[in-house]
Amino acid sequence: MTAFGGFMSLLFLGMLVLAVVALVMAAMARDDAYRAADKQNKMFWMIILGVTVAVNLLVPILFLQIAGLIATIVFFVDVRPELKRVTGGGGRRGGSSSDGPYGPYNGGR
């Protein structure tokens, strides 16, 4: 195998892994969260990402793989952050509303 062939194999494997991770994340989100985030419904994303995984596994046609990669990137960059925002899965873990960037705000005491 040439260096280029090895690089392309790693690239295709990376695209497959991203698609599988996106599919699992799409499956784990609640259906009503998609509606609340004003995104396409859950079934739409499951079909798109499922087809992307199938194309990466079964029909390695570069054009279709790139289209699937774009859909996967859109899911990660646009849909998933909105789903997290709507479901309350944001960046804070266990903090209160008075917490600042360096800890709880105590009112100058």
Descriptive tags:
109 residues, two-stranded antiparallel ribbon, mainly alpha
Question: What share of residues is helical?
Answer: 55-70%
Largest sheet: 2 strands, antiparallel
Q: Element order, helices and strands?
A: HHHHEE
| Low-confidence runs | none
> What topology, given as strand order, has the largest sheet?
1-2
Overall average residue pLDDT: 86
Written description of the protein model:
With 109 residues, this protein is mainly α. 69% of the residues lie in helices and 4% in strands. The protein contains 4 helices and 2 strands. It has a two-stranded antiparallel ribbon. Strand 1 and strand 2 form a beta hairpin. Helix 1 packs antiparallel against helix 3. The radius of gyration is 19 Å and the shape is flat. The mean pLDDT is 86.
